[in-house]
């Protein structure tokens, strides 16, 4: 049995992950409009990862026989002042999500809900990677503010492969559909 406090907090997090999906689609669309296809591709892919996070949480609640509420989602920011802005927004978002994920693990522990605490471990590791990726990207995009082709070349070199399948990732609802 997942603890009630954890279940309602995880339902809130599902909304955050779907909102992150929408935000990254908005970032990708902005870059596509600026004809920066590598940055666009990166954010389209990040968006799909956020959707997966939400669906992993949905699956967890289904498996735990807990209530799942598919949420409405906050509107993303769609206008950006320059090519750096979407990345700094993304880094701030990943830092915020890291705090939320840690808080979820904390609630699970306080409630002695060790199954849920263990479920959160994968997300803790994932957040370390996402914050690191975004802060690297912020450094590069800031350096190439005057010549965005530099960051495009960097993305083509460093982020061209698709996301590798992670066998330790929790199951996402509907993934086998
Ligand atoms: Fe996420
Ligand atoms: Fe993320």
Q: Name the average pLDDT.
A: 96
Number of strands: 0
Bound molecules: fe (ii) ion
Structural class: mainly alpha
How can the largest sheet be summarized? Answer: none
Helix coverage percent: over 70%
**How far do the termini sit from each other?**
26 Å
- Helices and strands, in order, run as HHHHH
Q: In DSSP terms, counting alpha (H) and pi (I) runs of 4 or more, how many helices? A: 5
Descriptors for this entry?
177 residues, mainly alpha, elongated
Report on this model:
The chain has 177 residues and is an all-alpha fold. The chain is 70% helix and 0% strand. The protein is built from 5 helices and no strands. The chain is elongated, with a radius of gyration of 17 Å.
In terms of topology, how is this protein built?
Elements: H1 4-33, H2 37-63, H3 85-110, H4 114-143, H5 148-158
The structure holds fe (ii) ion (2 copies).
What's this model, at a glance?
The chain has 177 residues and is mainly α. It has 5 helices and no strands.
